[in-house]
Structure formats: C-alpha cells, structure tokens
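Issue: ligand-bound run for zinc ion - logging full I/O for the record.

Environment: standard queue, default settings, no custom constraints.

Inputs:
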Amino acid sequence: MVDVEKCRMTRWPTPVLVQKAQPIEDIDDSIQALAEKMKDIMVEYKGVGLAGPQAGVGLRIFVASLDGTKENAKVYINPVITPSGTLVVNEEGCLSLPGIWGNIKRYSKCSIKAQGLDGKEFTEQAEGLLVRIFQHECDHLDGTLVADKLSTVAKIAARRKLRQLREDYENQNK
Ligand SMILES: [Zn+2]
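Outputs:
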C-alpha cells in the first residue's frame, strides 16, 4: 500500500530517483489515490509528465498530459516502450532537476503498452512531444535522469547546479 499523504515532489539526489522502480501487481485504492496525487503534483509544478519516483514512490507508474492540465492527464501503469524512427535532439528539462536543461536525443516515434487504472492493457502510438515525454518518464522508472544523458560539455555546465541540489538535499535531510 502506498501512503499518498507522504508523496512529495522529489529532487535529485533523492535515492528513489536513481533506483529501478518495481512493477505494480495490484491496482488497489492506494494506486488510484497515488495517480490522483501525481496528477496534482504535475500540475502544481507545471510539468507535462511525472513518474512515480518523482512523487517519492518506487513503482512503475507515470502520468502524462500534453497541455499540462489535469483533465487531459493519462495514467500509464507498468509501461513498456518500443521506440522507433530516428533520433532527434531537443532541449529537455526535468522537475526533479530544476534549473538543468540539456539537448537530449530521443527516438521520434514509439509504441507504448501499459495498463490503465482499470487494470486493462492498452497500446498507443506516439510522435512529437508525447514520444519525448514517454521516453523521459520510462527512463525515470529505470532510475535514469536527463543529467545522465547530457553531453560532456553540458555536464560540466550543470556541475554547479548539481552541487547546489546536493547541498539542498543534504540540508533538508540533516
Ligand atoms: Zn523528469
């Protein structure tokens, strides 16, 4: 059971963000509540996607909304992504790495298979911004962050910001 009351936006280097998330076996009431909470956090922080670890929960679930609204937010449980097309570079940020932006390579198309809150499996094809969101969120479920995918030059540029985030985290967890 997930304790939704404890769910908060997490920032790097919170351990749950760099660990592999676990599959969801039982879509119970706490998962329904978690999905609601994740949508709220995503909207509050003006994101277009949010993965379980970003709410402090190491489970394979993410929400995505192309226009950042709660109404259009869709829930993906135990997603499996199959990328295709060509690699496209675009600027990308992450709510868990505030202030860090980088040019990240992503595939231009994908198909995604996941379960909804009703437990039913569905498959979607994606292109454009949505395919970038899907790949970004699926990375989160494997403990991979955009900071891991930056070029060497961008990593050096992000060093100060990462040091600040680490200090903030250590101060909050003293
Ligand atoms: Zn992110």
